[in-house]
Amino acid sequence: MLSQTVVNRLKEIVGEKNVVTDKVGLLTYGYDGTLLSGEALGVVSPHTTEEVVEIVKLMNEHNIKLVPRGAGTNESGGTIPTQDSVVISFTKMTKIHEIDTENFVAVVEPGVINFDLQVELEKRNCYFPPDPSSYKASTIGGNVGECSGGPKCFKYGVTRDYILGLEVVLPNGKVIQTGGRNFQSEPAYDLTRIIVGAEGTLGLVTKVFVRIIPLPRAKKTMLAIYDKVEDASQTVADIVAAGIIPTTLELMDNLLINTTEDFSHAGLPRDAGAVLIIEVDGYPEDMDPQVKTISEICNKIAKEFKIAQSAAEVDQIWTSRRCAFGSVARVRPSYGVNDITVPRSNFPKAIQGVLKVAKEYGVTIGVVAHAGDGNLHPLVLFDQRNKEEVETVHAAEKALCMMALDLDGTVSGEHGIGLVKKKYLDSEFTPAAMGAFRKIKRSFDPSNRFNPGKVFEL
Amino acid sequence: MGVLTEVYEMLNTCNKCGGCHTACKTYKLTGQETMVARGRIQLIKAVADGKLEPNQEYEDAIMSCLLCGECAVACANGVRGNELVMAARRDLKLRKGIKPFAKSFALKTLASPKRLGMGFSLFGGMGKSVLNKIDGMDYFRGIDIRNFPTAKKPFLEQVPERITVQHPKHKVGFYVGCFLNYSLDQTAHSVVKVLTKNDCDVIIPKDQVCCGLPQYAYGDFETAKKNARKTIDTFLDKYKDAEVVLSACASCASMLKHDYLKLFADEPSYLPKVELFCEKVVEFSEYMAKIGVDQSQLHNSSPVRVTYHDPCHMIRGLKVTKQPRQLLQMIPRVEYKEMFEAGRCCGAAGLIQAFYHEVSTNITDQKVENIKDTNADLVATSCPACMLRLQGGINKAGQKQKVMHVADLMANAYKD
């Protein structure tokens, strides 16, 4: 429990209403998108960088740890309060300071919701490409922490590729600015890239300089339907081999087709083995040749191939994909999201691997994948109340991770490591590399006060 | 525990993905996890699991829900947050009764026609004259009380039980509801006028009571059932010649049409009668669009720009959205302009406006901004609670728009 002195001081810093210490309040900041939970000593919601600095200093005086949190939608346990810590919630830091369309920069506070930023950018004919499926709820600060990806990442890259600089409050309470708003190189060490994806273990981000780009002039959305998931993965390899980089290459297997249909009624055929959502963008005159090549490739093996003819049809196609994660709850109440990624040339092998794991362990796995970057989200379905089943699921998830590593892949493409995947990190990195990570963490945060126990044990 | 056991599977189906964040107005405004479906559901689950003893903070989380139903629309898992909150309220009621304020003032009064009538007449007379003497007492918890309309005499006392037309084609039972009876009696007259102009005989039972929604929403199923039974028996036994039971209040209509079924789910012997009744219930715009309105009778000399607000019970309860817009656009010289987020809650949300006024006032202010952006002269809607809330918000913001029921706009377009 926090001492009354600390609570009072926190209230002085951020205001009475922005400090939570009651059981009900704490309970609601103890979870995220995973099955894990914890209980914080308190939750504090600052409004400014200065308040963040004051909080950090106060916590240092009392040797209390801090867990940063955005919307709490992550899939890796990154925001679960562990080790007697206070949650610092950034949902009150929601200012968009500036949108500069001449220099393609936006300056935002970490609590700005990805979707809210997109709405403002669209009014100015621009956008911010990283678009995780949670983009309607998740914050830019959270996206930075996890280095989120999204369907557009095949062509445009992940969050890291759109962060020009950061304002960061360090564990010692000092504020630094990394990178710069008007250039894309870092004259000295690239601290921006170290902090992006560090899951709040190195510093608390209080301002983000994001790179924005103009909205594409034209876009074509296509849907290919397959009898077998293997056929879909072959198309992915063929499209890339033909030298086309679609914005998006999203795959959903039969299970996901059915669960998303239950929610969205988008009209996907329930007996299909898999669907691919393919999107290309660019100048209007670039569209037809790309669509032609893609349709030739798809028609070779796909059962059906459609080009969306209206905005409504595009929406319909995307509704299915956006609701994919949640919709599996209609089959079983709990799911484990995996985030394995393999080189795209190995994508068909990874799909085979997933099917094999499902069979070997006797578990139900639905697959949704950002197929273009070889990033798979096998969703392992179960009921968390069944302890035995939970054990089997953990074993199957481990097998999926090992399979990805065997295919020269990684255990996490975009969701981060958090608590969920840290046990696999030693298999992916050499002891020397793990040692280097620990040295970096210690040099930023020698007392291990920021998001302790996440990514790896110090 | 029984109530929460019944909904436990749905509680367990929430995967905490946060998809409801963007749908929830109370979360958008507060940024607090206790104020969003995901948080509320996890709290209800903790209570169901015996890990949390309901306390004041829990009650606040449960009672501050608008019940607007947007989270249910947004949830890919099919979790209906509003229904889970309803279950939690019922559970709270069974555990310890309802909040004293809700219990004594609002709910009991609404449940009894006598008390309600007296309350409104006291407020309209003495209450208002007292208020006028207090400086700055224009708004009580964001409610524009000084301009809160009260009928001089309840509508039910102003009209005969049966109003007949020369060549009747339809026979409509009119369920008036508390707001139209005691406060917006002019709107009730508008409904009758539009119906009679369209060859409907109107039956207005004198002994109708509150539909029971306010009590139901706060978990007092017993009182709600009493009123529901009275309503059903009145319309089905005493006035069985009424072809439909029409309501011009989206909230009442949604309660009569859908929630009565849930309310009596545990009474199989009475349920068939409830089903028969629910079949007959129809909302005003839905009915007018169905029987068809003779457009040639509608007149309007001055151009007017109109926007429409979808009440929660209309868009997500009854799922009626096209008909009111169609009717409005049938009126000559009406320029219809859709507002941003027309289907989002206006902040009235039953008693929320009184209990959690800070949140609800902010929600109303946003709605008023959206109305302002349309440059509309008139705001039409289908629920008296929304009408009063919106007009209050508009007046408070110093805006000029007038809020009217769809029936009012139509009635004004008929030459007498």
Given this structure, which CATH class of the domain at 295-412 in chain B is correct? Alpha Beta
| Most residues in contact: chain pair | A-B, 42 and 28 residues
Beta-strand share of residues of chain A: 15-25%
Query: CATH-wise, what's the superfamily of the domain at 295-412 in chain B?
Result: AF0625-like
Q: Walk across the major sheet of chain A and give the strand order.
A: 15-12-14-13-17-18-16
**Mean pLDDT level of chain B:** 88
Rg on CA atoms of chain A, Å: 22 Å
The CATH topology of the domain at 96-214 in chain A is: Uridine Diphospho-n-acetylenolpyruvylglucosamine Reductase, domain 3
Helix content of chain B: 40-55%
Largest sheet of chain A: 7 strands, antiparallel
Structural category of chain A is alpha+beta
| Global Rg of chain B | 21 Å
Residue stretches of chain A low in confidence (pLDDT < 50, at least 5 long) are none
Mean pLDDT rating of chain A: 93
Could you characterize the architecture of this molecule?
The complex is a heterodimer of chains A (458) and B (416). Helices cover 36% and strands 21% of the residues of chain A. Chain A is α+β, with helices and mostly antiparallel strands and 458 residues long. Among the domains of chain A are: 86 residues, Uridine Diphospho-n-acetylenolpyruvylglucosamine Reductase, domain 2 (2-Layer Sandwich), CATH 3.30.43.10; 119 residues, Uridine Diphospho-n-acetylenolpyruvylglucosamine Reductase, domain 3 (2-Layer Sandwich); 109 residues, Alpha-Beta Plaits (2-Layer Sandwich), CATH 3.30.70.2190. In chain A, the strands form four sheets. Chain A has a seven-stranded antiparallel sheet with strand order 15-12-14-13-17-18-16, sandwiched between helices. In chain A, strands 5-6-10-8-9 form a five-stranded antiparallel sheet. In chain A, strands 1-2-4-3 form a four-stranded mixed sheet. In chain A, helix 8 crosses helix 10. Chain A is globular and about 70 Å long. The two termini of chain A are 24 Å apart. The model of chain A has no long low-confidence stretch (mean pLDDT 93). The radius of gyration of chain B is 21 Å and the shape is globular. With 416 residues, chain B is an alpha/beta fold. In chain B, a hairpin with a 2-residue loop joins strand 1 and strand 2. The model of chain B has no long low-confidence stretch (mean pLDDT 88). Among the domains of chain B are: 96 residues, Fumarate Reductase Iron-sulfur Protein, Chain B, domain 2; 118 residues, AF0625-like (Rossmann fold), CATH 3.40.50.10700. Chain B has a five-stranded mixed sheet with strand order 3-5-4-6-7. The longest helix of chain B has 21 residues.
